[in-house]
Amino acid sequence: MTVKQWVTALALAGAAVPLGLAAAPAAAQTAPAKLKVEMQYFTLDNGLRVVLAKDTLSPTVTVGVYYGIGFRIEPRERTGFAHLFEHLLFQGSKNAPKGVHISTISNAGGILNGSTRYDFTNYFEVVPSNALERMLWLEADRMSAPVINDEVLKNQQGVVGNEVKVNVLNQPYSTWPWIDLPMLANTNWYNSHNFYGELKEIEAATVADAKQFFDSFYKPSNAVLVVAGDIDYAATKAMVEKYYGWMPKASPVKLPDISEPRQTAEKYRARTDALAPKPGWAAGYHVPPRGTPEWYAMGLIDQMLVKGNDSRLYRKLVAETGIAGEVSGGINFPLGNMFNYQGPMLWSFNFTHDANRSRDEIKSAVDAVIEELRTKPVSAEELTRARTKMRSSLYSTIDGTGRIGLIDLLAVYALFDNDPNKVNTLEDGFAKVTPELIQKTAQDYLRPTNRSIYVIDPGAAQPAAPAAQQGGK
């Protein structure tokens, strides 16, 4: 699955009663119940972190395995290797040859997929609850003994190379802005390289490289297993210990330094896209460290500026000036959300526009919106609206199809923070944000010297104007 397809699969709209939530007693009609995900969390002797979340609303279970290896952690001269390896692990394991994993899930009436992100690679299955033990066995076999040989490697090098050519290089706008903007804004190679991979480096990978990569990152101590759904806690824990507990404890993963220096000057880049029919304009700002008060404030700023038709940039660029037809953006956009990463990150937004709108006009309109937020306190009403939108988005993610959003949140807080219960504190973090903190965060992080702008000049031939209508007979 491509990064874009994975993002699309997780794009959920509307709020609903969350699955897997333990409803708190209603203290008052005006006070909505806070998010409360019921769970158990433990770690095996080999370091595998395990999150179990019981939800009996439907007779299904979702199994997710998250490894602490994403595309910004991959070694130099092996760009795209994290993505390549995501594909390799679908090619069979010692006791489940190629095709068995997929057919087992299909025969059970389930679904499966995987993806590569900044800081993790994940795999998941959604199946009837009576198929849980089979899923744990399959994922354990994949974790302990995947098939890595010349045939498998060459096959998947071709698959990934074709994906890059078809889904990226030969598409309008191609890597803009989802790869181009981070490469411009960041200075550390780990954050700024082409994570989809240079084809020559993907093609140069050897079986020895692949096995070394597996030994370095795909180990219990660098992984999280999440099981959510119609489960019995004691029985599920026993199955987890049976299939994973025997695996030996490995040496700790050696992670690179992915820190970013403070940006001190605005960056700008433009390129011509031969396939793009319209100009494009994108901007990115480095955001506060994940989990800090300013980070929570930035999440609400995101809601105020680009989320929904009531957002400030939408009103300015779409409703008032007609510069753009729509505006998209967010923290960790479009490769995830503001929760599922660990390290430096951008808040960004982008849009296409008609060729008759000048870059100066666009920058002036954007600056007017950003500077108003930096210099004038937000109203209590706007802050409350932003919190409501954030809460709706959070609940929608958790209540998404197949519990995929739920296991994602639980997994990343276990993987990055060793505390999946932090999911239940997210609302409190947003509730503590004040108008003063919004303005302080905007002044610090939405300054022009923290911004990178990447624009696209269209190279595609424009449609010819219709011929003038001839006079009547």
State the end-to-end distance. Answer: 58 Å
Order of helices and strands: HEEEHHEEHHHHHHEHEEHHEEHHHHHE
Task: Count the beta strands.
Answer: 11
Instruction: Give the uncertain stretches in residue-range form.
Output: 1-29, 464-473
Q: Note the beta-strand portion.
A: 15-25%
Structural class: alpha+beta
What overall geometry do the principal axes of the alpha carbons give?
Answer: globular
Largest sheet: 6 strands, mixed
Count, helices: 17
The side-by-side strand order for the widest beta sheet comes to 1-2-6-3-5-4
Mean pLDDT: 90
Radius of gyration: 24 Å
- Helical coverage, percent range: 25-40%
Features of this protein?
single chain, 473 residues, 5-stranded mixed β-sheet, 17 helices, 39% helix, disordered N terminus, disordered C terminus
Please describe what this structure looks like.
This protein has 473 residues and is an alpha+beta fold. Helices cover 39% and strands 15% of the residues. The chain has helices at residues 3-10, 81-88, 100-107, 132-144, 150-169, 180-185, 189-192, 199-204, 207-217, 233-244, 293-306, 312-320, 359-375, 380-398, 404-417, 426-431, 435-445, and strands at residues 40-43, 49-54, 60-67, 111-116, 121-128, 223-229, 267-273, 280-286, 328-331, 346-352, 451-458. The chain has a 6-stranded mixed β-sheet, sandwiched between helices. A 5-stranded mixed β-sheet has the order 7-11-8-10-9. A hairpin with a 4-residue loop joins strand 4 and strand 5. Helix 2 packs across helix 5 (150-169), helix 12 (312-320) runs antiparallel to helix 13 and helix 13 (359-375) packs across helix 17 (435-445). The protein is globular and about 60 Å long. The termini are far apart.
